[in-house]
Amino acid sequence: MDKIPEMLAGAGGNIVLAIIVSIVGYFAIQFIMKALRKLKGFEKLDQTVVRFVLNFIKWLMYVMLIIAVITILGVPMAQVIALLASAGVAVGLALQGALSNLAGGILLMVLRPFKVGDYVDAAGASGVVHSINLFYTVIMTIDNKRVTVPNGSLMNANVVDYTAEPQRRVDLVFSCAKSEKPAEIQRCILDAVAGSQYALQEPAPFAHISGGTNEAMEFTVRVWCKTENYWDLYFELNQLIVEAFAAKGVQAPALRVVSDK
After folding, report:
1. How far apart are CA 136 and CA 101, in angstroms?
2. Of 115, 145, 161, which closes a domain?
3. Is 171 helix (H, G, I), strand (E, B) or coil?
4. Of 112, 144, 161, which residue sits at a domain end?
5. How far apart are CA 159 and CA 104, in angstroms?
């Protein structure tokens, strides 16, 4: 007990130095991260890779700062390593979900199934990929909701990337009365498609009978467009074809009356 004050007095300088190093190190890391974000070299890289690399560098510097503080406090690194090794099994079991997400984040960077800005459907979430972090991916839905998906779940799920290819196809189905002439309906649809500003002529638009009932014929319409124009073409085709049917006097399918007698 008599030696405790002497020990505290001797360690006081180290404690003060450790606090100063912690504060200076924190602000130094913030300054370095801001400088790295402004590097022109990162502008040429994919934003998905840039964010992942910056997150990795930030956490690496924090680990180095913690090790420096422990060393200043006079804690032998051999004892720290032995303590971490003995607690490794328990920590690994407790953090197996987090480690799975970390491994998933690394695989997302290596395999690149999608990138920031892509519209995806994966692990029960649909929307635009906002960011890919070490442990989770943030997806923004079309109604501006933020969905956080663990990377481990993404790597074990089917991922549909709607914007990966430069072109997409809009598929629609229209019905008309069975009394209409199929060739005239087909010509009417194709003429309406030709009036679209987003439809591509190669591959050629498609419009053919694909089914029907006793009261109606169904025509499947398939039109290609640039991926960024998908929804513009989708809504435009619906309007153009409905207006063309009305202008031509195309009859709608007759309603089936079900009698309860």
Report:
1. 7
2. 161
3. strand
4. 161
5. 14
**Predicted structure pTM score:** 0.62
Q: Is residue 209 part of a domain?
A: yes
The total of structural domains in the chain comes to 3
- Looking up tokens 């984040």 gives 105
CB 139 within 8 A of CB 129: yes
Contact between 29 and 69 under an 8 Å Cβ cutoff? The reply is no
Residue 260 placed within a domain: no
Cβ atoms 225, 200 nearer than 8 A: yes
CA–CA dist 131, 154 (Å, integer): 13
How far apart (Å, rounded) are the C-alpha atoms in residues 92 and 96?
6
- Interval 206-227: pLDDT, tens: 999 998 888 899 999 999 999 9
Confidence of residue 261 (pLDDT cuts 50, 70, 90): very low
pLDDT tens-place string over residues 82-114: 666 666 655 555 556 677 787 888 888 778 888
Q: Does the residue 258 lie in any domain?
A: no
pLDDT tens for residues 151-198? 888 888 899 999 989 999 999 999 999 989 999 999 999 999 999 999
User: Which amino acid is it at 202?
Assistant: E
Pairing mode, if any, of strands 216-226 and 167-177?
A: antiparallel
The dihedral built from the CA positions of residue 114, 116, 121 and 122, taken in this order, carries a sign that is positive
For 101, residues 6+ apart whose C-beta sits below 8 A from its C-beta are 134, 135, 136, 150, 151, 152
Comparing 253 with 229, the larger pLDDT belongs to: 229
- The CATH number of residue 82's host domain is 1.10.287.1260
The boundaries of the domain holding residue 185 are: 167-248
Same-domain check for residues 15 and 52: yes
**How far apart, in whole angstroms, are the C-alpha atoms of residue 237 and residue 245?**
12
